[in-house]
Amino acid sequence: MDTFYDLKKQAREQWILQNGPIAQSLSRVKHKIAIFSGKGGVGKTTSTVNLAVSLAKRGCKVAILDADVHGPAVPKILGASGKLDVASHRMPGGHHSHSECEGHGQHKAGCTHEHHQGNGHGHSHGQSHGHGNGHGHEGGHFGGDTHNLRFEPIKTPYGVDMVSVDSIWPGRESPVMWRGPYKMRVIRQFLSIINWGELDYLLVDLPPGTGDEVLTIMSSIPGLDGMVVVSTPQDVSTIVCSKAINTAREMNVPILGVVENMSVLCCPHCNNAIKLFGHRSAERLAKMMEVDFLGSIPFMTEVNESSDEGIPVVIKHPESLVALEVGRIADCLVSKVETAGKGGEQGGD
Ligand SMILES: Nc1ncnc2c1ncn2[C@@H]1O[C@H](COP(=O)(O)OP(=O)(O)OP(=O)(O)O)[C@@H](O)[C@H]1O
Ligand SMILES: [Mg+2]
């Protein structure tokens, strides 16, 4: 029979086996922050992208992991339609060696192509996972341990690196059809086999709710600084956001604060503030849940227009109220995580 010592050793070995590659891949990332919400369509992705670009404008090295596998939108807003490219082979034991393909453009491209071959015909492959046949694909769409490959994140024109499911098949028209375990595996692979390199901030854009993707991020990122909750000023949103906050608490993940999005509409004619959602506020949610309120982002049509153009609003309209407010929230986050890193209190938790 196993002794307590044996069980402890086994558990530690199991943890290293499962989480070692992620811990190693993120070892040079100073701060990891995930953006989530109980509610869909409240502006998580818009906030994530503009916060990331604001941080980059302040001289930080930033990357975004788009963990919304069914509705990835980060590439569109960042105008980044590239495909993940092979960086190097990963040697057993977590060491990397440069791929033979590296530095030889043609081979490199060929290598990537070869690697994705079969998967690129996403319809049939995706379907197969839908039917449960994909469970044997331990390596998944990246090859995983069987292929021992590492990938470079996509560079964007705004100083922010990015990785998304869209970066596997740029331009793909149908959504991926993945069930929970497979999504979890792909997200964990994003964390472990991307060359995230040295970063000040890794922001993770999450899908709405508290499903597989959110739980995977909360449980897989070592030293996750915390979560930022985005909500519109409406009970329909704040009520589900309070549940999302409770989920993070149950997972022992700190809440860095609440961002209120679409707080007011600035009338383009008279500049008056129109309360789109009535008189509710997400600040009340923050108070009720005893977490910090990070700030309010107004509704401006420029946000939609610039996002559709693939230019984040903080770049296209740097003097707009939205850009100024996002910048203020970015400053607030920086001071929060830096203070926490120096032993200060984190969030309201
Ligand atoms: N402050 C804003 N002003 C104007 N439009 C906005 C603002 N914030 C977000 N939007 C628009 O609202 C829509 C939803 O935004 P976004 O995709 O960022 O939300 P989301 O919470 O990430 O959605 P999902 O739950 O689907 O991931 C988009 O059309 C976006 O351009
Ligand atoms: Mg989104």
Describe the structure in your own words.
The chain has 349 residues and is an alpha/beta fold. A hairpin with a 6-residue loop joins strand 10 (255-266) and strand 11. It is built from 13 helices and twelve strands. The chain has a single domain, classed as P-loop containing nucleotide triphosphate hydrolases (Rossmann fold), CATH 3.40.50.300. The model is unreliable at 96-139 and 345-349 (pLDDT under 50). Strands 1, 2, 6, 7, 8, 9, 10, 11 and 12 form a nine-stranded mixed beta sheet that branches. Helix 1 (4-25) packs across helix 7, helix 2 packs across helix 13 (321-341) and helix 7 packs parallel to helix 8. The chain has helices at 4-25, 44-57, 74-77, 105-116, 122-130, 144-147, 180-193, 212-220, 235-250, 282-289, 301-309, 313-316, 321-341; strands spanning 29-36, 62-66, 85-90, 96-98, 149-152, 154-155, 160-163, 199-205, 226-231, 255-266, 273-274, 293-299. Adenosine-5'-triphosphate binds next to helix 2, strand 10, strand 12 and helix 11. Magnesium ion binds next to helix 2.
Write the layout of secondary structure elements.
Blueprint: H1 4-25, E1 29-36, H2 44-57, E2 62-66, H3 74-77, E3 85-90, E4 96-98, H4 105-116, H5 122-130, H6 144-147, E5 149-152, E6 154-155, E7 160-163, H7 180-193, E8 199-205, H8 212-220, E9 226-231, H9 235-250, E10 255-266, E11 273-274, H10 282-289, E12 293-299, H11 301-309, H12 313-316, H13 321-341
Parallel strand pairs: 1-8, 1-9, 2-7, 2-8, 9-10, 10-12
Antiparallel strand pairs: 3-4, 3-5, 6-7, 10-11
The structure holds adenosine-5'-triphosphate and magnesium ion.
